[in-house]
Specification:
Elements: H1 5-26, H2 31-34, H3 54-65, E1 71-82, E2 91-103, E3 108-113, H4 119-126, E4 134-139, E5 142-143, H5 148-151, E6 155-158, H6 170-180, H7 185-198, H8 214-226, E7 232-236, H9 244-260, E8 265-270, H10 273-279, E9 282-287, E10 291-296, H11 298-305, H12 320-329
Length: 333
């Protein structure tokens, strides 16, 4: 104690203090502090001259009147505070301006847009990672600002950056998140095994997650998000880094969960129109400034905004005899 006693006492005190502080933060005891004016972005008036597409306006009005959608985003706006060098003065940057959409079970909504359009900000608000500046977001009737403790129990979330532990195996990850989600003990083994098989991870089940390729890490993240078929599934660029075969396989899994079983509502962000067409029942395309440029089904958007023609070419696979003949003709053996 004469040599290391002081250090041991301080470590023990730190443990007690930091644990207490973490509990208080999780309970929201200090939320009032972040609501002080110094931490709030300056007010930005709504753009009254914002010219929105008629389909976007129609969805906006529908969401205002219909409060039964399982996922409901109404007049959502988000402004961020930007530093100016003066601690008592800040500027504001409007990331998302007045977007509205709603989903029911069995629907899949694709959120498309360039980098910086506001897709990730929308997802952060859906998961209560950030607070909307104005507007209302509800999940299964629970307001994410006041009742997120109940809403989060219904959400499966695949973040843009893989939330994995490098030293844990694929199978350990699935078991770990299955227990966190509170899946009953007698169902655990079957659900874990089905999740591994569904995402084609059987060959990697005992590999540490940190050694997986980027595509397999994404598949693991999707497996954890869809574990137990949660009612609300949020997928932030789920196919990033996947090869075409793995991407198609993942699409089949998500499409089955959302549209065939009709037990979940799915929102995904993507840069790929092909992916949005394959999975979504409706989509919204965001542009810089955080507004919807268009809204509707993929076919409706293509009919309304598409130009040019689409040409499909199908080539018959040659027989072995034809390949041999061609090889002899051009001098190959």
């Amino acid at each position: 104690m004469s040599n290391l006693g002081g250090d041991a006492v301080i470590l023990a005190c730190h443990f007690v203090f930091d644990t207490l502080l973490l509990v208080l933060i999780e309970l929201g005891a200090f939320s009032w502090f972040t609501k002080l004016p110094i931490f709030q972005p300056a007010f930005i008036a709504a753009n009254a001259d914002l010219k929105l597409d008629p389909d976007v306006v129609a969805e906006e009005q529908r969401v205002r009147l219909n409060k039964s959608d399982v996922i409901r985003v109404s007049d959502f706006r988000k402004a961020y505070q930007t530093a100016t060098g003066n601690p008592f003065r800040s500027n504001s940057f409007l990331a998302v301006e007045r977007i509205s959409f709603g989903l029911d079970y069995g629907e899949c909504f694709a959120l498309l847009g360039v980098n910086g359009a506001g897709k990730s900000t929308t997802f952060k608000s859906l998961t209560a990672d950030t607070t909307p500046t104005s507007g209302e977001i509800t999940v299964a009737g629970h307001n994410i600002e006041t009742d997120f403790e109940q809403a989060r129990k219904l959400i499966g979330y695949c973040p843009q950056k893989d939330a994995i532990f490098p030293l844990m195996t694929v199978e350990e990850h699935i078991w770990y998140y299955a227990r966190i989600k509170g899946i009953p003990e007698h169902l655990l083994e079957n659900i874990v095994e089905r999740s591994i098989v569904d995402l084609n991870l059987s060959d990697h089940r005992v590999k540490p997650a940190g050694t997986l390729s980027g595509g397999n890490k994404r598949k693991l993240s999707v497996a954890m998000a869809t574990l137990g078929n949660p009612p609300i599934i949020l997928l932030d660029e789920p196919s990033a880094g996947m090869d075409p075969e793995a991407r198609r396989f993942m699409w089949t899994v998500v499409e089955r969960i959302s549209q065939r079983d009709k037990k979940s509502a799915v929102i995904l962000t993507t840069h790929s129109m092909e992916e949005a067409e394959a999975l979504s029942t409706k989509m919204g395309i965001m542009v810089r400034g955080g507004v919807f440029k268009c809204y509707g089904s993929s076919q409706h958007i293509k009919n309304k905004f598409g130009t040019g023609y689409e040409c499909e070419i199908k080539i018959r696979k040659p027989t072995y005899a034809e390949i041999a003949t061609i090889s002899e003709t051009i001098g190959f053996t």
